[in-house]
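Notes continue from the previous slide.

Worked example: a multi-chain complex. Inputs as given:
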Amino acid sequence: MIKLIGLELRRNKISTYLISSIIIAIVVLGFCFLFGYGPQIEASKGVLPSDTAFEIFMTWKGCIPLIGTISLGAFTVMSAIMNAKFTVEEYAGKKAIHLFSYPVKRSRILFAKCILVFSFTCIAMFTCNIAVISLFGAISNAVGILPETFTTSEFLYLLKTTAVLSLLAASVGLVAMRIGFIKKSLSWTIVSAIILVGPCGNLFSMFPDRTFTIMLIGMAILLVIGLIVFLELLSKVNKMEAV
Amino acid sequence: MDTQIAVQTKNLSKEFDGKAVLNRLEIKVAQGEIYGILGVNGAGKTTLLKLIAGLLEPTEGGAYVFGENSWKQRNKVLQNIGSLIEVPYFYEHLSASQNLSIHLEYMGVSADIDKALSHVGLPDVGNKPVSKFSLGMRQRLGIARSIIHRPKVLLLDEPINGLDPVAIREMRELFISLKNEGMTILLSSHILSEVEQTVERVVVIANGTLIEVANMEELKNTHQNNLENYLIGKMRGGKYND
Ligand SMILES: Nc1ncnc2c1ncn2[C@@H]1O[C@H](COP(=O)(O)OP(=O)(O)OP(=O)(O)O)[C@@H](O)[C@H]1O
Ligand SMILES: [Mg+2]
């Protein structure tokens, strides 16, 4: 299995996705400053932030899920693109002839592809989101962007939300891969991912006290669906024809 | 039985969306022979090769490579097969050598990549990305990939596609030398002259039905001046009359 994953890495350009992750991280950091300074700019114009806006932008409990959701959106789309490139497109049309010509169990090759994209998404999003928000926290502590201090307890909250959101991004990517597989199409994969991840922002902010619970439930549901459709595809790939 | 049967199809039928593409095809290919598959566009040549390579599930009957069912014991069969079916697919951003090296990893064998490249007339392109290759260079690389792991059975679907006359001759010589080393080669083509010059036996298929299996030497002797007419008649599925 390690060998098969290694082969996937050799023939796909993984550097593209490393660079994409870094770009996402930079953009997300930009959003951090935007949200962090937003209320101050508003206030300087004499507009006082509403209570909910204050909750979200001035407290770490509000800011971390908000920034996390932006990361979630970006990494879900990246995961969908990776799944499309590594998996969906490789089974489309004439490319399948090539992939199916090897005396290796087809389900093992598919497994290698999916596990690689799933773990890459998790690790990339986990690393980037933690790094970006911690950095922003440190800067905020130094120059006072948010009124609250970013302490260990905020960091722990960041760790657990990011862990859940990273798994959510990877799970949505997996489900989107399965949907894209129906049409063997890159755009179907990406659009499915966007449709699935789209409502997350609203869902998370629906009950501000329960944000983490909602994230956890959402992640659990998508992870289970992801595993089911993945196992279904594993059994199906052995019977696929290369037409 | 003095020679072993390398490839055999038994009652092999394939339908696409209810439309029959191959009808109860029965062929036997002996180990170490070059066997031609002749037919017009859409006759079913590619479909037959795909069935032998375990890429399609037969609607009825089966294809066998050294006695193993191509669809049901696919992984065993694929170990013995090298194939170039339809347009070869490569990892475009990688070089020819990298493509071959990954291929060997998947096949689970090792081989001399430089030697394989020079075998097919691509000695100095090892490090160039495949995206910069011409049509003929891709075809040569596809042939290199199909033989580098020393398969017992080689399936070639119109292997001379896009090749210049010099390359066509080189490939013909390559196929014959591979055959002399004991490789069994199935070669589909609709180019009569190529089939005439390369293969030992030929099966003519029309509309997915076997029209005739013949020994090439004998055909050449019997139809000295009108072999082309004869074969075209067969490919049309009809009977030929002098
Ligand atoms: N995936 C498919 N779905 C439906 N019909 C197909 C499919 N693949 C092949 N066919 C049909 O099967 C028939 C045989 O096709 P095949 O590709 O085997 O022909 P061929 O002899 O290789 O032709 P050519 O010389 O043009 O390559 C054709 O009528 C083709 O339209
Ligand atoms: Mg064909």
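Summary box: Chain B touches chain A at residues 16, 50, 53-57, 74-79, 81, 83, 85-89, 91, 93-94, 98, 102, 105-108 (CB under 8 Å). Residues B 45-46, 157 surround magnesium ion (ligand 2) (CB under 6 Å).
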